[in-house]
Amino acid sequence: MSDFKHATEISFAGTFACSAFSACFAELCTIPLDTAKVRLQLQKRGSIGNEVGIPKYRGMLGTVVTIALEEGLIALWKGIIPGLHRQCIYGGLRIGLYDPVKILFVGNDFVGDVPLFKKILAALITGAIAIALANPTDLVKVRLQAEGKLPPGVPRRYAGALDAYYTIVRQEGLAALWTGLCPNIARNAIINAAELASYDQIKQTILKISGFTDNILTHLLAGLGAGFFAVCIGSPVDVVKSRMMGDSTYKSTFDCFFKTLKNEGPFAFYKGFFPSFGRLGSWNVIMFLTLEQAKNYFRRIA
């Protein structure tokens, strides 16, 4: 991603296709961890299991096991359809636009390493644009993931992804599909900057170390680094985004933020941190490995 020569060898359509495919593949592989993360983030201090005061979900693996035992293994892939919708739009645009925007900042004739702040700015812009278009898919994904095991006789809110889109528009209006847009833009612009800029920078740094080449090991290390930075920086806005999309009682982003802070304390914003890192770390490794291979394939057939 840091090589302008390679960046311009593939058309925007080709880069978009590579990015969308890679993001969808990573989503398919890691969505069980994302489902666990969403359940942990939506779990409030008052949520209890079989005993008063005992949280129903405890830790990433505990949450995965609880969901699988209570709702069946397939429940871990709740939200996969809107998740794939999301990655086709969001994943394709945020990554596909990154190199063109970066080149726009430095010019086509630029030689050398792009300054880090320009990489961050480019990623912030592409992340914000992409999620503004993909927000409805994110909303439906979170709502489907948030729905746990229901008592006998209680119907589910949505029969599936398409029913969820239709029901939300019919009951809440078209604008409701963009519920949580502000925290979602903040979250995804920040995480996109953390992921793309850090991957770009880490990969660039590794390639300057003697013995390292542009291969799978380099992509693996850079992908893990990108996932770690993304979780550390984006976890608070991710929690607010998940709660606003999963619980319609919050009036605004600030209302959600201050109620969470007041009722549960600052550590609530890092609920699900380890599942987030497990999810984003593995997601970034799978996505970037797949992306690099897909781009190499496109270069060979171009």
Structural notes for this entry:
There is one protein chain. The protein has 302 residues and is mainly alpha-helical. Helices cover 71% and strands 0% of the residues. It is globular, with a radius of gyration of 20 Å. It starts with a helix and ends with a helix.
Map the helices and strands.
Layout: H1 4-7, H2 12-42, H3 60-71, H4 80-96, H5 98-106, H6 116-146, H7 161-172, H8 181-207, H9 216-246, H10 253-264, H11 273-301
Helix pairs in contact: 2-3, 2-4, 2-11, 4-6, 5-6, 6-8, 8-9, 9-10, 9-11
Task: Give a nutshell description of this structure.
The protein has 302 residues and is mainly α. 71% of the residues lie in helices and 0% in strands. Helix 2 (12-42) crosses helix 3 (60-71).
What radius of gyration results from the CA coordinates?
Answer: 20 Å
Kindly name the structural category.
mainly alpha
Order of helices and strands: HHHHHHHHHHH
Helix content: over 70%
Q: Work out the helix count.
A: 11
> How far do the termini sit from each other?
18 Å
How much β-strand is present in the residues? under 5%
Sheet bearing the most strands, described?
A: none
Low-pLDDT sequence parts = none
Looking at the structure, what is the overall shape? globular
Mean pLDDT: 86
Strand tally, please? 0
Keywords:
302 residues, mainly alpha
